[in-house]
């Protein structure tokens, strides 16, 4: 099948692995409205589904990471009870399974969901229960999916060690890693070295949002000082790659190190356009990095704000760069290789699910 035959509908049938998806960025607009009504949250900017969906999409497309993050106040605002957290987590799994995502790591910041009096342990309990129930329901409908959790600390706050400890407490119950997120400028990852050291001391994995709204120093610190296993976004690594008029690429020392060490890039094309990290999908460094054999992966970031799915993200890349089935398979296997579950679990999903299903599509 040629790239021209890779329609959105065809891509929806492909198995997918997702590493970078924010729980509070993926709510259904109708759910936001219903949860707001149930909780008495009266700050929503619209009171109908279409109007609310339009608000999130428009507000997020701001050209600024800081402004992109502002609409999250509304989704977080309606996620302050065990019931709301369970529902959002359950529907997250339901929506991902409907898009044929077979493995997902979904992240959220527990510290943002305690305004209603919940402890952070109770917050994580509710989300994990929602994921588990969602997996069972999807399986009963013939859509097998594995969903694991990353707990995130906000980089402008000072609770990262507490969140890292939370990750370790729940490591055998569905939490597979740790992350820091939020505005990059002025909040370097090195502010949280104690949290990263704690994760390393406990033989645990973590990723860091870096190189999205800030440049190479953010990526350098995440790798050299913090020891990140993966990079959230990392688009600014392109600043360390020089491409000649003839198309030859010369990698700087940081870019070469990341490629040599097979550091995974959790790339989120649509989101990167919205935040102004890149001008358009066609200008996204994804293709350059893919051609240079960096370990690039395709991700949604925030499905509500970007009005997207994994299928849409892949289709946009196909439209921009002419990818075929073998390319999409490679990106999917890249993601599965980079997941924070055990090697045996990763290999089983690659060999028993991803490769056989792509073999059917490739013909």
Explain how this protein is built.
With 363 residues, the protein is of the alpha/beta class. It has one domain: Alpha-Beta Barrel (TIM Barrel), CATH 3.20.20. Helices cover 47% and strands 14% of the residues. It is built from 16 helices and ten strands. The protein has helices at 8-11, 29-39, 49-60, 65-69, 72-77, 82-98, 120-140, 160-169, 193-201, 216-225, 253-260, 269-274, 286-291, 310-321, 325-337, 343-362; strands at residues 16-22, 101-108, 146-154, 175-181, 206-210, 230-233, 241-243, 249-251, 265-267, 296-298. The strands form two sheets. Strands 1-2-3-4-5-6-9-10 form an eight-stranded parallel β-sheet, with helices on both faces. The protein has a two-stranded antiparallel ribbon with strand order 7-8. Strand 4 (175-181), helix 9 (193-201) and strand 5 (206-210) form a beta-alpha-beta unit. Helix 6 packs parallel to helix 7 (120-140), helix 8 (160-169) packs parallel to helix 9 (193-201) and helix 15 (325-337) packs antiparallel against helix 16 (343-362). The protein starts with 7 loop residues before the first helix and ends with a helix. The model has no long low-confidence stretch (mean pLDDT 94).
Q: What's the short version?
A:
With 363 residues, the protein is α/β, with parallel strands linked by helices. It has a single domain, classed as TIM Barrel, CATH 3.20.20.140. Helix content is 47%, strand content 14%.
């Amino acid at each position: 099948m040629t790239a021209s035959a890779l329609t959105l509908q065809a891509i929806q049938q492909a198995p997918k692995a997702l590493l970078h998806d924010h729980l509070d960025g993926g709510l259904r607009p109708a759910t936001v409205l219903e949860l707001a009504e149930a909780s008495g949250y009266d700050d929503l900017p619209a009171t109908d589904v279409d109007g609310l969906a339009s608000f999130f999409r428009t507000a997020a497309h701001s050209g600024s990471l800081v402004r992109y993050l502002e609409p999250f106040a509304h989704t977080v605002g309606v996620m302050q009870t065990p019931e709301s957290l369970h529902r959002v987590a359950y529907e997250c799994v339901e929506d991902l399974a409907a898009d044929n995502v077979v493995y997902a790591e979904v992240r959220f910041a527990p510290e943002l969901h305690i305004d209603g009096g919940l402890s952070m342990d109770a917050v994580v309990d509710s989300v994990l229960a929602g994921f588990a129930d969602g997996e069972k329901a999807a399986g009963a409908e013939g859509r097998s999916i594995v969903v694991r959790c990353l707990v995130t600390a906000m980089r402008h706050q000072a609770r990262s060690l507490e969140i890292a400890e939370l990750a370790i407490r729940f490591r055998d119950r569905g939490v597979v890693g740790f992350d820091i997120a939020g505005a990059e400028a002025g909040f370097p990852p090195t502010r949280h070295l104690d949290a990263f050291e704690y994760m390393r001391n406990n033989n645990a994995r973590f990723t860091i949002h870096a190189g999205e709204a800030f440049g190479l120093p953010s990526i350098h610190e995440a790798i050299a000082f913090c020891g990140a296993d993966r990079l959230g976004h990392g688009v600014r690594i392109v600043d360390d790659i020089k491409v000649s008029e003839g198309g030859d690429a010369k990698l700087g020392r940081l870019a070469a190190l990341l490629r040599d060490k097979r550091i995974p890039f959790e790339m989120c094309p649509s989101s990167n356009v919205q935040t102004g990290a890149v001008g358009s999908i066609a200008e996204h460094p994804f293709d350059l990095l893919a051609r240079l054999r960096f370990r690039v992966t395709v991700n949604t970031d925030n499905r509500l704000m970007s009005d997207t799915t994994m299928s849409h993200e892949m289709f946009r890349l196909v439209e921009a760069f002419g990818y075929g089935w073998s390319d999409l398979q490679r990106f999917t296997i890249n993601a599965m290789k980079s997941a924070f579950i055990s090697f045996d679990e990763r290999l089983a999903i690659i060999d028993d699910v991803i490769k056989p299903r792509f073999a059917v599509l490739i013909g």
